[in-house]
Amino acid sequence: MSIPLLILVEVNPEGLASFESAGFTLCMATTPQDRANAARTYGIDIRAVLTNGSTGFTAEEISTFPALEIICAMGAGFEKVDLAAAQARGIVVTNGAGTNDASVADHAMALLMSIARGIPQADAAVRRGEWAQSRQPRPMISGKKLGILGLGNIGRQIAQRAENGFNMHISYHNRTPVADSPYTYCKTPEDLATWADFIVIATPGGAATRHLVNASVLAALGSNGFLINISRGSVVDTSALITALQHKHIAGAALDVLEGEPEVPAEIATLTNIILTPHIAGRSPEAVAATAQLVLQNLTAHFAGQPVWTPVPMPG
What pLDDT, in 10s, does the model give residues 288-312? Predict the structure, then answer.
C-alpha cells in the first residue's frame, strides 16, 4: 500500500523518483497556497511530511493530519518544525545532519573571498566598460583573523579551510567552549567581533540565536570588518545590518540567507557593499543527492518499524 508523503519543499526529479520507487505517493505543496490547501487537496491521510528548517511545519498543520507519523527536515535545520506539537502526538522528527556540511563550508569560503576581493562588483564594473575605475585595492584574506559564530560541524569545516588553505587565525563563540578545540574561545559575540577581521555565522536558527548579531556586534566588527552568513537570516538584525552597511560602519557583508526570505528588503538590494546568494550554500549536486538519500533512509526505516537514522532530539 502506497504511503502519502506531503512535500513542502523543492526536490529534484531524481529524489522524487526515488521516493515513488520506495512506495510513497507524492503530494506536492511547495507554494503557500498549495500548502494551505493540502488537506483539502490530498485528504487528511498524510502519514509523512518532507520540509526543511526554514519552511518548517506548524502545530496547526500537525493537528490537521491525524495519521501523521513522521516529519523529515531536509538539511541540518529544523527550527520551524513545532517539536512540542510533534512530541505530544508521538510523531518522529528527523533532519539531514551532515549531508551538506562540506557544501555549505565551501560556499562560506566563496562568499568570504568574493566580498573581500569585491569579485561581483569588479565583474559588473568591467562589463560596464569601467576597467580603470574598478582597479581599486582590496584586502587579502591570507593571514587574517576569522571569527566563527557557532563552531559546530559546519563551523569546524570552515575553520579547517581557512586555517589550512589561507593561514587564517581562528577564534570562535559558542554558548559554551568546545572541548579539545584548538581555536581561541571568545565569551561573547562582541568579543569575537572586536578581535576579528571577518565573522562567519554558522549557528543554528531559532529563538535562541535570533538577532545574535545586532548593532553592538556590528559596531565591534568595525569599518574594516566583513560579515558572512550561511546559517539563518534570523541570526542577524537586518535593520542594524542595513544601517551599518549604509554608513560604512562595516566594510561589507555576504549573505546566503535573509530574514523573511525570499523577500529582499529594498534597502539591501540597492547597496553595493553586499553580496547576496539565494540560500544555495547546501545545494551542490552532491549535497542535494545525499540529503534526499538520507530522507529516504529515514522514511523507509520508520515505516519498516526500525529506528530512524537521524532523529531530532525532542524538548526536555
Answer: 999 999 999 999 999 999 999 999 9
Evaluate whether 6 touches 38 at the Cβ level (below 8 Å).
yes
**Closest to 205 (Cα-Cα) out of 232, 227, 228:** 232
- The separation between CA 250 and the C-alpha centre of its own chain, rounded to angstroms, equals 22
Q: Using pLDDT thresholds of 50, 70 and 90, give the confidence band for residue 13.
A: very high
Residue ranges of domains in the chain:
3-97+285-303, 101-276
Give exposure, 218-229, as e/b (b: 16+ Cβ within 10 Å): bbbbeeebbbbb
How far is the C-alpha of 246 from the C-alpha of 225, rounded, in Å? 14
DSSP helix, strand, coil percent of the chain (3-state; round to 5): 40, 15, 45
Closest listed residue to residue 70, CA positions, set 96, 95, 92, 44: 92
User: How many CB atoms within 10 Å of residue 56?
Assistant: 17
CATH superfamily for domain 3-97+285-303: NAD(P)-binding Rossmann-like Domain (3.40.50.720)
- pLDDT, mean over the chain: 96
Q: What is the pTM of this model?
A: 0.90
So what CATH class is 101-276?
Answer: alpha beta
The CB density around residue 278, as the number of other CB atoms within 10 Å, is 12
Give 114-136 pLDDT, tens digit per residue: 999 999 999 999 999 999 988 99
No. of H helices and E strands in the chain?
13, 12
pLDDT at 1: 61
Q: What is the distance in angstroms between the CA of the first residue and the CA of the last residue of the chain?
A: 35
Instruction: Round to whole Å and give the CA distance between 236 and 240.
Output: 8
**Using CB atoms within 10 A of its CB, is residue 257 exposed (0-12), middle (13-18) or buried (19+)?**
buried
Which of the residues are catalytic? 232, 261, 279
CB 249 within 8 A of CB 241: no
The tens digit of pLDDT for each residue in 174-194 reads: 999 999 999 999 999 999 999
